[in-house]
């Protein structure tokens, strides 16, 4: 993880590049189009500032490169590394297939556990019930977090989910700081 | 031993009562084993209780609630879990000493409390290898204190209890000789403070599981430090709630800021010089007050990229900043503000120019 200031500078540079490309490709935009372009280029810049090393940045790049028009932008912003990252991005769905399968297996086994747990809950002492409720709460929140972090669906284990979240929060914070200072300046 | 023998003879006379209490205690310990995640402490305290003369043991066991209270108060497992991150052996010992002072066993004299302390120490030290050895080397010296039993089911249960007793005694003995060594070991080894259930958790799977949990805890702590106002909250679910809220608010801020930028700037290309000065200042202020960071990009990067941007600036300055337009944009923003609640700094930043205009 680079220090936040260099991350910000990298992000700003790439964002400006992306904005320049956007504006040169299309002259007269409505406010919503402008907003969309700004947000997209900011996201791509953020992802490319992290060099596509993390899951969430890869997911952003892959999501952006689904659309043809945005693909050009992604390629321009990423520059030399675009081929590598795109390739990496294409690797992601492949692994995700495997992960989906394993998730199915996991769910099946979880189901049996849950059934067993339901049986035991009726007769178990209150402390055990409390523990199971706490576990359920945590599971729900973990799933919500997975939905929030881009590419979080493909993250299976909790350690890497937390790491991704850490990285994502730091990057988002940098993005928000840069955007706010820009908004205040202009 | 002599004392126990004598009381053993006494205990023959009142076998039924003794049996009942033994049964009770067995069920109780089993329940505790099921209930509490770190049962070794309780078990050891219980065996300490069983090692006392039967009369007192009977007295104590007739009020299991109080015993439960004691064991739960003194050796609260969640607290130990909290301590796990930063292992303080001295504090643990202090805790044990305090527990011994406040417990009912305090009247028993130093002998029992010593045993208790030592057994707790060994339980903390995750020395199940020691336990196995202890089981082998232990002579059948607790035989005499066993009550006469006729029921076969009770027999098996009491055999279990005997086993547990033996283990605890052995570990206590062992730890008397090597108490200092074990505390030294605890400081050297990384996973010693992650305690294992007795009989479990020494195989590689549960060791790996424990290491994983450690990792998760460490990263959660990092996250807690990162998210503002989250460091005081305990409880994984609440912390996760805070993290989710933070991520959501950041994402919403990005949305809002991009909307604002789109509203303020008629063209997507922003002017660059004002950004750089403001950006550099804010970077210096917010993150590195002490470290001197370069305000601009390094020269090597700049030399290649700068020329087109400079041209861009001149172009922009010619075209930019029509006041009326900006006013319109601010008017556009205000409903946005009232609808969505962002954090206060963003609000104040956007409201400020509006207020100024109102005053004018």
From TrEMBL, chain A:
Pfam family, one: IBH1_N
Compartment(s) where it occurs, according to its Swiss-Prot or TrEMBL record: Nucleus
GO biological process, one term: regulation of DNA-templated transcription
GO-annotated cellular components: nucleus
Molecular-function GO term, any one: protein dimerization activity
Record keyword Kinase present: no
Domain IBH1-like N-terminal: 5-67
This protein's UniProt keywords: Nucleus, Transcription, Transcription regulation
Superkingdom of the source species: Eukaryota
Protein's name according to its UniProt entry: IBH1-like N-terminal domain-containing protein
From TrEMBL, chain B:
Residue ranges constituting the BHLH domain according to the UniProt record: 200-250
GO cellular component: nucleus
Keywords of the record: Nucleus, Transcription, Transcription regulation
Basic residues composition-biased segments: 159-176
InterPro entries referenced in this protein's UniProt entry, alphabetically: bHLH_dom (IPR011598), bHLH_ZIP_TF (IPR024097), HLH_DNA-bd_sf (IPR036638)
Span list, region Disordered: 1-20, 130-191
Entries under SUPFAM superfamilies matching the protein: HLH, helix-loop-helix DNA-binding domain
MF GO annotations: DNA-binding transcription factor activity; protein dimerization activity
Protein localization: Nucleus
Pfam families for the chain: HLH
UniProt cross-references to PANTHER family, sorted A to Z: STEROL REGULATORY ELEMENT-BINDING PROTEIN (PTHR12565), TRANSCRIPTION FACTOR BHLH48-RELATED (PTHR12565:SF112)
Protein name: BHLH domain-containing protein
Native source organism of the sequence: Rubroshorea leprosula
Taxon lineage: Eukaryota, Viridiplantae, Streptophyta, Embryophyta, Tracheophyta
């Amino acid at each position: 993880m680079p220090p936040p200031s260099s991350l910000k500078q990298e992000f700003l540079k790439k964002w400006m590049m992306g904005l320049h490309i956007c504006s040169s490709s299309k002259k007269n935009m409505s406010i919503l189009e402008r907003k969309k372009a700004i947000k997209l280029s900011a996201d791509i810049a953020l992802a490319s500032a992290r060099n596509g090393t993390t899951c969430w940045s890869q997911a952003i790049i892959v999501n952006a490169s689904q659309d043809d028009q945005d693909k050009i932008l992604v390629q321009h912003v990423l520059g030399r590394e675009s081929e590598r990252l795109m390739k990496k991005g294409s690797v992601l769905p492949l692994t995700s297939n495997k992960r989906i399968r394993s998730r199915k297996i996991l769910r099946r086994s979880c189901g049996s556990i849950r059934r067993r747990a339901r049986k035991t809950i009726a007769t178990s002492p209150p402390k055990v019930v409390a523990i199971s409720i706490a576990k359920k709460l945590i599971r729900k929140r973990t799933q919500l977090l997975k939905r929030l972090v881009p590419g979080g669906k493909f993250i299976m284990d909790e350690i890497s989910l937390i790491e991704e979240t850490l990285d994502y929060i730091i990057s988002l914070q940098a993005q928000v700081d840069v955007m706010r200072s820009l908004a205040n300046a202009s | 031993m002599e004392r126990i023998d004598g009381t053993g003879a006494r205990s023959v006379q009142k076998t039924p009562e003794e049996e009942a209490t033994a049964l009770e205690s067995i069920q109780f310990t089993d329940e505790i084993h099921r209930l509490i995640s770190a049962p070794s402490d309780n078990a050891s305290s219980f065996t300490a209780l069983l090692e006392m003369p039967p009369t007192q043991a009977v007295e104590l066991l007739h009020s299991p609630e109080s015993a439960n209270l004691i064991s739960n108060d003194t050796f609260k497992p969640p607290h130990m879990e909290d301590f796990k991150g930063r292992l303080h052996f001295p504090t643990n010992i202090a805790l044990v000493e305090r527990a011994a002072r406040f417990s009912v066993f305090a009247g028993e004299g130093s002998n029992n409390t010593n045993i208790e302390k030592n057994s707790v120490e060994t339980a903390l030290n995750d020395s199940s290898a020691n336990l196995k050895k202890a089981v082998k080397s232990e002579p059948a010296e607790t035989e005499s204190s066993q009550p006469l039993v006729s029921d076969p089911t009770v027999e098996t249960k009491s055999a279990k209890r005997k086993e547990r007793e033996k283990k605890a005694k052995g570990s206590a003995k062992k730890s008397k000789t090597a108490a200092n060594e074990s505390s030294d070991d605890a400081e050297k080894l990384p996973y010693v403070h992650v305690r294992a259930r007795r009989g479990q958790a020494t195989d590689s799977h549960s060791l790996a599981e424990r290491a994983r949990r450690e990792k998760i805890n460490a990263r959660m702590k990092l996250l807690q430090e990162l998210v503002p106002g989250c460091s005081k909250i305990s409880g994984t679910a609440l912390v996760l709630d805070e993290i989710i809220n933070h991520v959501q608010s950041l994402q919403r801020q990005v949305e809002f800021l991009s909307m604002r930028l789109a509203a303020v700037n008629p063209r997507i290309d922003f002017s660059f010089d004002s950004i750089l000065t403001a950006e550099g200042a804010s970077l210096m202020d917010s993150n590195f007050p002490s470290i001197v960071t370069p305000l601009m990009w390094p020269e090597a990067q700049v030399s290649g990229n700068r020329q087109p941007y400079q041209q861009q600036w001149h172009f922009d300055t010619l075209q930019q900043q029509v006041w009326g337009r900006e006013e319109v944009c601010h008017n556009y923003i205000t409903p946005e503000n009232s609808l969505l609640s962002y954090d206060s700094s963003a609000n104040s930043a956007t409201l400020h120019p509006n207020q100024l205009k109102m005053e004018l």
